[in-house]
Amino acid sequence: MNNSHNVETNAPRLFDADIAAQVEKLLERMSLEEKIGQLTQIGGISGFVPGPEPEEIVRRGGAGSVLWLNDPKRFNALQKIAVEESPSKIPLLFALDVIHGYRTIFPTPLAMAASWDPDVPERAQAIAAREARAAGIHWTFAPMIDIARDARWGRIVEGAGEDPYLGAAMAAAQVRGFQGESLGAPDRMLACAKHFAGYGAADGGRDYDPVYLPETLLRNVYFPPFQAALKAGVGTFMSAYMDLNNVPASANRWLLHDVLREEWGFEGFVVSDAFAVANLVTQGFAYNARDAALRALRAGLNMDMASATYLQHGAELVRSGAIAEADIDALVRPILAIKIRMGLFENPYVDESRLEEILSRPEHREEARRAAQRCMVLLRNEGNLLPLSKSLQNVAVIGPVADSMEALEGPWLVFGHQPAAVTILQGIREKLPHAHVTHASGPEIRRDYPSPFDALMETFSGAPRPAPQTPEEAEAAFQAAVETARNADVVIMALGETANMSGEAASRASLDLPGRQEELLKAVVALGKPVALVLVNGRPLSINWAAEHVPAILEAWHPGSEGGRAVADVLFGDVNPGGKLPVTFPRAGSHEPLYYARNITHAPEGSRMYSARYWDGPPTPLFPFGYGLSYTTFAFDNLTVNKPEIKVGEVAIVTVNVTNTGSVAGDEVVQLYIHQRAGSDSRPMRELKGFKRVTLEPGETKTVTFHLGPDELGYWSTSAGEWVQDAATFDLWAGGDSQASLHAELRVME
Ligand code: BGC
Q1: Which of 209, 320, 578, 634 is the most buried (most CB within 10 A)?
Q2: Which residue in the list 146, 273, 304, 403 is annotated as catalytic?
Q3: Which 3 state secondary structure label does DSSP give 377?
Q4: pLDDT at position 454, please?
Q5: CATH 3.40.50.1700 fits 369-591, yes or no
Q6: What is the Cα gyration radius of the chain?
């Protein structure tokens, strides 16, 4: 096997003869300065970055793309300058982070991964694209497809969690959603696979910290979602901020050239992360800005986001002979080709009259509600407390995220977005129109250190954030919440994290419920009423106490604009939850990274030595990867392989039956895990290699089929230094989570 395992060149080609000819024609008439301009992306907000106004840079052909702008009128005005006044009249590409919705906000990407249904992110991102495109945005910096195995890392919320197989499925689905059938499809936008690569493995989960990843982890774990995005036709990649094995990703020729271009055959273009080219100096890698530009260009980084380092030094680097103009041309070509494919030369402007109609389409909101329903994970339901009865008369809804539109929508919304979510409180009130539904938020929750982005937004909006509660105010809020709960028959606690507690620059050391939330939860549970806990959060939380003492726990994540309605749908039984965890829930932040696909040690699970891993508590997850309950129950049986033995290179067909053994219809996610017993390298104790979410009526059985061939059974081997498929015996397990016990065996022979 060779290194390009898993990437067939069936990804749609960017260049054909016609596109190539058009690109050459454009290149011929462009000056060197204009070529460097195409490699430059500038911030669209006046005064955000020092230097000339965006209009002035665009007029002289000094920018190929503009970001951080969300204003159709301004887009059209800038575009007019580009296509009428700039020397070669090349249209601009407008870019913005449209991560999980533009106006209609969908669950966060981590939440969407919990649906284990790639249709959910595909449909969500198609709507996000339609709305954003109507606003004049051509290009989104999404999907973020970094594998994250450390929930302390704040950006875990932006990706699909810990697993490369699930992550690859979600990555491809998002690309299909954003881009549609092909680049330039109407109402779709250009996608960007980010952050290439390894960003999620930041030391200690501290955002931006260096990453040390051996090739086995890069190729077997961190690359697969990027390869899946590429296969799905993603037009652009974004390089990551951090040092990867001591070479910053943005100047890492091995990553950007050897792997991405040579091995995988990527034809699109790579943009740096914001200011990353200039940061090569800050990071202690480049000697100065000129050297930073040179090394990023040589590494194959096409576009400099926001740092203007290419703009300042690119032309001189060519004139001095440090880099050949032919190399610059090679970097410009895919940018021009994408602009042609996107139809920007024919249609550079956005029709401002369509925007409001598109943003107000009710079907977008309906899809957001459906998506949120499918993302929720039922973590506990002792005594079948849930679903609650709709004839309840007296319900208290308690907690700092219960009536917060911001918390429901979560992090990473577009500039200028005004939160407009249906909150949990509102959703419950709508569901129980005749009941007495009371509310108290309890003490507020805040980051200990403010987010740098909040500070930025304060500067732009001119609206300072409210002062923190005093300890006395917090105590009064605590007591009021307990009193409110005391007067109710049933209490719904909505606890978790605010939107700014996860995302970029939002890592945390502890995974406990922030602030006094657990204390409040204990005080409310002590009242002896039935309590259901709804979690609103961007990452796994170590809710150890709740997992033992609160009968019902529903993981709602940051569920988006319709989140409150979706929570009520699930709590009151109109929807049976069927989501599963896309990431392990550890018992403490200090246990991270904790993920299911670890290798077996000499003291495996079940052995006497195993529990000595920590002497101060069990090393096992609080909730395992793939876990989630339902209002019904499921049984698995008849796990069979069509042949007990296959040859290397052949495909085995695996089937398993799943039956709804309860009394209501429900969804189960059938998961297939493998383990290779011995071979060229040690392999993880379990690896997900197939999944399917199915709906079953009570008593119904379905047979689910999976394929295990070289793509699933092969891997990149450290010993061999290449992709291998070993002749080996495999354990197979199928079931409803990563601890499934239904077992079969498959032998792979030479
Ligand atoms: C983030 C990227 C984002 C870019 C542009 C950076 O700070 O790391 O994910 O796309 O900003 O907004």
Answers
A1: 578
A2: 273
A3: strand
A4: 82
A5: yes
A6: 26
Q: Give the Cα separation of 356 and 581 in Å (integer).
A: 36
CA dist 144 and 163 (Å) reads 14
Burial 293-330 (b: 16+ CB within 10 A, else e): bbbbbbbbbbbbbbbbbbbbbbbebbeeeebeeeebbe
Could you tell me the pLDDT band of residue 109, with boundaries at 50, 70 and 90? very high
| Fold topology of 634-749 | Immunoglobulin-like (2.60.40)
CB-based contact 93:189 (threshold 8 Å): no
**238 CA distance to ligand 1 middle (Å):** 9
**Which residues, 6 or more positions from 746, have their beta carbon under 8 angstroms from its beta carbon?**
641, 644, 645, 646, 652, 654, 674, 708, 729, 730, 732
Nearest CA to ligand 1 atom 6: 274
Mean of all residue pLDDT scores within the chain = 96
Nearest one of 174, 59, 183 to 122, comparing CA atoms: 174
pLDDT tens digits along 283-326: 999 999 999 999 999 999 999 999 999 999 999 999 999 999 99
Query: How many Cα atoms are found within 13 Å in the side-chain-facing hemisphere of 608?
Result: 0
Q: How far apart are CA 102 and CA 135, in angstroms?
A: 9
Test site for ligand 1: of 41, 141, 144, most ligand atoms within 8 A of the Cβ? 141
- Give the C-alpha separation, 625 to 360, whole Å: 37
Q: Whose CA is nearest to atom 8 of ligand 1?
A: 273
DSSP character string of 204-228: GG-TT--B---HHHIIIIISHHHHH
For 655-698, how does the pLDDT look when each residue is reduced to its tens digit (9 = 90+)? 999 999 999 999 999 999 999 999 999 999 999 999 999 999 99
Report CA torsion sign: 113, 214, 651, 181.
positive
Percent of the chain with pLDDT over 90: 93
User: What residue type is assigned to position 222 of the chain?
Assistant: Y
Residue 273 is among the residues annotated as catalytic for this protein: yes
Tens digits of residue pLDDT in 218-268: 999 999 999 999 999 999 999 999 999 999 999 999 999 999 999 999 999
> What residue ranges do the domains of the chain occupy?
369-591, 634-749
Question: How far from chain centre, in Å, is Cα 51?
Answer: 33
Query: 193 C-alpha vs ligand 1 centroid, how far in Å?
Result: 12
Ligand 1, atom 5: nearest CA belongs to which residue? 274
Report residues whose beta carbon is within 6 angstroms of any ligand 1 atom.
Answer: 97, 141, 194, 273-274, 504
Query: What is the pLDDT, as a whole number, of residue 9?
Result: 54
